[in-house]
């Protein structure tokens, strides 16, 4: 069997990643259940095996999601984090700002989409002037500067998130359809913003994945964006950053912001998209915090 590749994107995960691999774990699982062979890499009492980035170690768990998870809201707020020269450089806090913050807007142009730059589905290609070769972990600053960002203060102690992540957005658009792309990144003391999880919600599928309905321009809707799951430890001095935009192309197809099916549309419009941050519309992400 080929040796495990320990470098993913621009990050090195050795030696932890090299102590096991996906195929070995699968083989041990099937050996136990189909051949009654007990292998030390699989335990029926701790059947869940995860790789915890940040700590860069494999860990076995009893269940998924973890029973000890503390789902914690982190709110998108106004103010300035001083982290990056993005479109807004907002703050991210575990409580609301204490007063209503002004909504944050940006223009999404399908003819100039935010390019894919790494990601948790391991895309291996380069796209556009900001595209990054390689898979997985990449510095997101080139695309973050064209997006809305919300960043915590540097953490005083480490924080682990393990499990499903989602965002609740209150948003409006000048168009009848658009996309909402949300990413969680780990911002290192040197400023590098490394992607942890991300997800997308197409506005027309906000209520149903099979029965699309267009949105009313200017109306505020609530969106739930599934960012999938991860296991990661943010180290002291690092910050948690949420990035908002409306594309990651070509990983996801561009939304043309019109009524026609985006993949077949012959026309397109620019959309002014707005995220709301007030007490009636507390946009936030829900992180699965694990006590340590």
Sum up the structure in keywords.
two-stranded antiparallel sheet; globular; mainly beta; 292 residues; 2 helices
Strand and helix map with partners:
Elements: E1 7-8, E2 11-12, H1 22-35, E3 48-52, E4 57-61, E5 70-77, E6 90-93, E7 101-108, H2 141-144, E8 148-151, E9 159-173, E10 179-187, E11 193-202, E12 221-234, E13 239-245, E14 271-277, E15 284-290
Parallel strand pairs: 6-8
Antiparallel strand pairs: 1-2, 3-4, 5-6, 5-15, 7-14, 8-13, 9-12, 9-14, 9-15, 10-11, 10-13
Short description:
This protein has 292 residues and is mainly beta.
Overview of this protein structure:
The protein has 292 residues and is mainly β. Helices cover 6% and strands 37% of the residues. The protein contains two helices and 15 strands. The strands form three sheets. Strands 5, 6, 7, 8, 9, 10, 11, 12, 13, 14 and 15 form an eleven-stranded mixed beta sheet that branches.
Number of strands: 15
SSE pattern, N- to C-terminal: EEHEEEEEHEEEEEEEE
Instruction: Determine the structural class based on helices, strands and strand pairing.
Output: mainly beta
Q: Any low-confidence stretches, pLDDT <50, length ≥5?
A: none
């Amino acid at each position: 069997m080929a040796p495990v590749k320990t470098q993913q994107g621009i990050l090195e995960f050795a030696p932890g990643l090299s102590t096991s691999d996906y195929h070995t774990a699968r083989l041990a699982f099937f050996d136990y259940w189909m051949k009654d062979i007990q292998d030390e890499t699989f335990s029926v009492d701790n059947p869940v095996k995860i790789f915890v980035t940040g700590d860069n170690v494999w860990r076995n768990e009893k269940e998924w999601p973890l029973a000890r998870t503390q789902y914690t809201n982190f709110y998108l707020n106004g103010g300035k984090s001083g982290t990056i020269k993005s479109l807004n450089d907002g703050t991210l806090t575990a409580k609301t700002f204490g007063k209503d913050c002004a909504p944050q807007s940006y223009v999404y142009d399908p003819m100039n989409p935010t390019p894919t730059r790494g990601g948790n589905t391991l895309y291996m290609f380069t796209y556009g002037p900001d595209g990054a070769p390689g898979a997985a972990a990449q510095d997101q600053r080139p695309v973050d500067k064209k997006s809305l960002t919300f960043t915590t203060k540097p953490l005083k102690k480490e924080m682990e998130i393990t499990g499903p992540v989602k965002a609740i957005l209150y948003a409006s658009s000048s168009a009848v359809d658009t996309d909402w792309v949300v990413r969680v990144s780990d911002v290192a003391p040197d400023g590098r913003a490394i992607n942890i999880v991300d997800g997308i919600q197409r506005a027309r599928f906000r209520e149903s994945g099979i029965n699309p309905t267009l949105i009313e321009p200017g109306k505020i809707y609530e969106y739930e964006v599934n960012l999938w799951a991860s296991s990661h430890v943010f180290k002291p001095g690092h910050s948690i950053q949420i990035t908002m935009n409306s594309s990651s192309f070509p990983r996801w197809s561009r939304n043309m912001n019109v009524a026609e099916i985006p993949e077949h549309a012959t026309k397109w419009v620019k959309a002014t998209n707005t995220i709301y941050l007030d007490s009636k519309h507390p946009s936030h992400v829900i992180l699965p915090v694990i006590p340590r």
